[in-house]
Amino acid sequence: MKIFIEYDDTEPCPCGSQKTYDTCCKLKSIRWGYDESGALVKQLPMSYEAEEELKAAEQMFGQYYGRKPGKNDFVFSFTPIYQDELLFKAMKAMKLSGIPPEDIYAYYKTDGLIPCGLNNEFISEKDKKEYLDYRDEYCNVINEPLTNTINTIQLTAYGNELLSSTFDNVQEKLIGSLNDFIHRHSSEPNGIYNYEMKSETDYLLFSAIKTIKTMKGIALLIEEQIPECIHSLGRSLFENYMYLNKINCDSRFFKMKLLPKVDKEHFQFVIKKDKTIDRNKVFHIETGVIYNISVIIADLKKSFSNLEDIVLYDLYYSNACQYIHVDVQSATNYFFTYDPYDELNPSLQAAIITASIAVLLYNALIHNRLVGSQFYQDGSYLIRQLTKDLLAAIEILNCDTEHTQPIFPTLLKRLQTLYGELSDCSFGEETGI
Known about the structure:
The protein has two domains: 81-143, no CATH class; 155-423, no CATH class. Helices cover 55% and strands 6% of the residues. The protein contains 14 helices and six strands. It has helices spanning 48-65, 85-96, 101-109, 125-142, 152-185, 200-224, 227-249, 253-262, 297-300, 307-320, 331-335, 346-366, 373-399, 407-423, and strands at 5-6, 31-34, 40-43, 267-271, 277-284, 290-292. The strands form two sheets. A three-stranded antiparallel β-sheet has the order 1-2-3, with no helix packed on it. Strand 5 (277-284) and strand 6 form a beta hairpin. Helix 5 packs parallel to helix 12 and helix 13 packs antiparallel against helix 14 (407-423). The chain starts with a strand and ends in a 10-residue tail after the last helix. The model is unreliable at 426-433 (pLDDT under 50).
């Protein structure tokens, strides 16, 4: 049994209230004392719920390792101790439950304290006062008159709402329109169940469905607060954008570089001397002619006619590769914990960036020569609306001067250029497919 020597009644209470122990915490179900090493410790009675949690954790420990936890084991070791994950999940649940934002703010600032009738006996008067002070602080700051500048609490409260609603809007409309694209351009209007890529149009359909699934994945990652993985998916969107741009610029690119990889009727991969497959070369089954089908991603940016696209490759695509590969330079980002009342949500920031890239990809898609003029017109109208929303969101991101990212000014300029192009776009004759 562990030693516990209770604190002296007449000494100032360790909670910091300036009262004596016997007139403060000892009147509640809080006990202060010293352990065998002389360290000051705080004791609280264990609730029934906590007891059940402890039993469940011990049972889980046994299921994992086949033994009971010893005195040097952490029974709750299976819960994360990085990025305040549990705290953020609790805050999310509180928001969904309709708990006022000032209480959520005070909960965060006090590292998980939320006074109520059920736990009043376990909270010191000083801690309770601190909670109420934080609650008042939030109310005062959030209600400050909006001027040319806003405080960080206002920025995060209003900014995160705008970022979230903007992404939801862009995602919903992009997915809906891409589904429409598939309907209009598929040779199987009743459903694609046995997809084979045999033409450039098939590649466009593949790009559409890949974008749909990527955007759905990003939405889930926002909920889980995993910006690193959002950037990983954003990288794939940008790469797809680069391929579409190259296809649009070079009518031979798809046929010469991409189609041979999947056209098993006419091509096969070259087998190296060591009997492994050479993924960069194919030979024509009938003629035996060998073709080099390697594609260097960095070379694709040479087809960009817009300077901002080239800069985006360097600022975004190259950096996003850190989250695909095991790059030690990205390690700090994985352990970084953000303050939700000091900066905009990193997952929402990542989502707005990837949504912007998705719109650029969609724009490249509708500019393909095989896309009919009616869908081009419809798509251009949609892009103009989505671009306007994204520009407003990126302006908000640029307002946070304490947490600037070089990609935002470039992305802002790129979308402004796109918006300007769509303001006075003209439509040519339908090319059909």
